[in-house]
Amino acid sequence: MPAGTERRDVVVVGGGHNALTAAAYLAQAGSSVLLLERDDHLGGATVSAEAFPGTGARLSRYSYLVSLLPQRIIDDLGLSITLRRRRFASYTPRPGSDVGLLVDNHDAGATRRSFEAIGAGGDHAGFTDLYDRTTRLAQAVWPSVTAPLPRRSELRRALGDDATWDAFVERPLGEVIERSVRDDLVRGVVLTDGLISTFARAHQADLQQNVCFLYHVIGGGTGAWDVPVGGMGQVSGALEQAARAAGATLVTGAEVTGVDGDGVVTYVEGGEQRQVRGRTCCGAALPVTSRGCAAPSRRPPRAHRSRSTCCCRACRGCARPASPPRPRSAAPSTCTSRTPSSSRRTPAPRRASSPSRCPPRSTATPSPTRASCRRGCASRARTR
């Protein structure tokens, strides 16, 4: 490492909402934080744009709804954002007809009449019961999002309903959907939340559809999805302000090209190659970017070779918020190098029983975002 290499307590690779949240919390805790973002702006997919020039109206450009952003994070970081609750969950037209299924969160009678209009009136009770069960599941799981990761058995006991736990956590999602409703259109509406970004099947053996579904139904303990006033850019903008106010250094136009096993991060800014050494390196970048910056070094990265601290959230010894329980058939987590090559944008919930290979971390200041486990342990203020 060159003698003039800058040193920081934490180097965060990436500038999306996960990275900004981590930077803000770590800086508030007194760490010196450097965040490096390749683009010329921060926020990642949580940005707004003036869709209609001259109107002054800014709308979400990519992600557009907020659900997995705990009120605790808003309060801890002093985020100035306004969220509006959606009245309508969805509208799905019946192919070949002029009717469709409208799910109205504020008017149960309107939803029931909509079921009847598409010829699926008999499914209304099963549909309602299914989501009553997911609400109970959400109430049990949601508090763990900003708490040390509980054991699987602890979450099951907190729910106190083995049938619901088995239906949504242990068995393929398609089974409970097929038992609850019969109409294909209604089944498709329910299954949608298990398929977004996963391309999974309803009865897929690895239960990725269940993982995705749980993320969509636990938000706030209710599963509700909110619209940010001013678009998603208001969320990332508030996170950026919080990080800067806490003392974090946020650099755009900085492309990370390598991270070695001793925590030395190499990046290019303004055509000039620079290096910084972090005691902790947090990867919060896209997989394609991460693979690109996994440059070979004289000593290949190895799990926790250096004095750097693990930022993954799959380890029982680390203080971090829990994810929805990993279905039993899924592979256990294995903590690896902290380089961005081992991070993923979309987190997969981990099993509480996963073996820990990370050093213990104090529970004094839990951070709602962590990153850099091989199968994507980054928590996020989830956007949809």
TrEMBL record:
Residues 328-384 have a biased composition (Low complexity). Gene3D superfamilies: FAD/NAD(P)-binding domain (3.50.50.60). Residues 319-384 are annotated as: Disordered. This is NAD(P)/FAD-dependent oxidoreductase. It comes from Barrientosiimonas endolithica.
